[in-house]
Amino acid sequence: MKMMMEIQDISKQYKGKKILDNACLSIYAHQIIALVGKNGSGKSTLLKIIAGLIDTDNGAVIKHQQSLKIGYVPEITPSHILFTPEEYLFHMGRIRGMAPKQLQQKIDDLLEMFHLQESRNSRIIHFSKGMKQKVIIMQAMLENTDLLILDEPLSGLDPKAQSDLEETLSILKDNGLSIVLTCHETKLLQHLVDTVFVIQNNKIIQTDSFSSNHTQHNRLIFEIADPALLENLLPFLDIQQQNQVNSDHFEIVTVIKLEDTSQILEDLLRNHASIKQLMPINYQEEHFYRQF
Ligand SMILES: Nc1ncnc2c1ncn2[C@@H]1O[C@H](COP(=O)(O)OP(=O)(O)OP(=O)(O)O)[C@@H](O)[C@H]1O
Questions:
Q1: What are phi and psi of 268, to 5 degrees?
Q2: Is 50 in contact with 13 (CB distance < 8 Å)?
Q3: How far apart (Å, rounded) are the C-alpha atoms in residues 186 and 35?
Q4: pLDDT tens digits, residue range 41-71?
Q5: Alpha carbons 263 and 267: distance in angstroms, whole number
Q6: pLDDT at residue 209 above 70?
Q7: Residue located nearest, by CA, to atom 28 of ligand 1
Q8: Which residues form the ABC transporter domain (predicted)?
Q9: Measured in angstroms, how far is the CA atom of residue 45 from the centroid of ligand 1?
Q10: What is the position in ligand 1's atom list of the atom closest to the CA of 184?
Q11: Alpha carbon nearest to ligand 1 atom 26, residue
Q12: Ligand 1, residues 12, 14, 150, 151: which to mutate, most atoms within 8 A of Cβ?
């Protein structure tokens, strides 16, 4: 694998408070990296260092590719944009000095890649959070990008929007991009991320990659009219999220054992639940990341 960037023994302090201390990280081409860690552990700081937005106190950030193009998407998504995505992206591209014809072609390509063609003439202010997140990522990709840096891209998205964004990020990776993202909700990431780094005690620690998953547990997402109907199933369900979709429907995200799956599905269908997603999961990793 071709190395894109190396973070060598970097240290960073804010007002005398140590955030990163001799931290190291390598980023390879076609790789998706997740950075996890407790609040305030330094994830956003590291992303900004990778993006070249802030300096380090010590150490080196070495780019192994000439003119490495980096797109950075901060954690806060501006939500009151009155433009349509097409207008917004056009203005942002022009501000960066892109030629109108080339810019329009890029916007068309991005709208298609992010499945937003049908909403190209609607105003961003009326978009869902997931759609707004996509527009902000598209904005970071207007110029050809090698490395995309995303601060908490899945934060605040419902499970469906998370899966949708995951799928888009996976397509971006297939198209040759590398991605570094921070995440608290790593539980939905195991099909996407190649390598996970944990920031702990000011250091960056690499954990096992997700690729060695074994599949003894499944993630099951379903809708049901009344969670009270789950009473008999509760010992078999590890409920991770419960969202009220409307006045008479709840969406429930659970982890279940492989051997319990058929019985649980049968019971749910008997209670008129509708199954939205069933996929294998590595439960050990799920437990590991919960501590963050
Ligand atoms: N510009 C700054 N000036 C002073 N302190 C800062 C600055 N930016 C970040 N910090 C501090 O550095 C520490 C690390 O912040 P950072 O945002 O990198 O953490 P994080 O892991 O991304 O946190 P979270 O998960 O809450 O987003 C925090 O204690 C934060 O208050």
A1: -65, -45
A2: no
A3: 9
A4: 999 999 999 999 999 999 999 998 888 999 9
A5: 6
A6: no
A7: 40
A8: 5-226
A9: 6
A10: 25
A11: 39
A12: 14
Token pair listed for 191: 């099909």
CA–CA distances in Å: residue 218 to residues 107, 156, 233, 286: 38, 23, 15, 11
Cα–Cα distance, 254 to 242 (Å, whole number): 9
- Tally the residues of the chain: 292
> Which residues have a Cβ under 8 Å from the Cβ of 46 and sit 6 or more positions away?
7, 20, 23, 25, 35, 199, 204
Nearest to 105, CA basis, from 118, 84, 86: 86
Check: CB of residue 93 under 8 Å from CB of residue 71: no
135-149, 251-265, 268-282, range with greatest mean pLDDT: 135-149
Domain at 270, CATH number: 3.30.70.1710
Q: Pick the more confident residue, 147 or 232.
A: 147
Report which residue type is found at 281: I
Let me know whether 85 and 59 are in one domain.
Answer: no
What pLDDT score does 281 carry? 64
According to the model, what pLDDT value does residue 122 have?
93
Indicate which residue's Cα is closest to atom 31 of ligand 1. Answer: 40
Domain that holds residue 249: 217-290
DSSP state string for 13-81:
EETTEEEEEEEEEEEETT-EEEEE-STTSSHHHHHHHHTTSS--SEEEEEESSTT--EEEE-SPPP---
User: Same structural domain for residues 185 and 249?
Assistant: no
Distance CA 2, CA 65 (A): 10
**pLDDT number for residue 187:** 55
Sign for the pseudo-dihedral over CA of 194, 200, 203, 208: negative
Q: How far is the CA of 63 from the centre of ligand 1 (A)?
A: 24
Q: What is the 182 CA–ligand 1 centroid distance (Å)?
A: 13
Co-location of 230 and 208 in the same domain: no
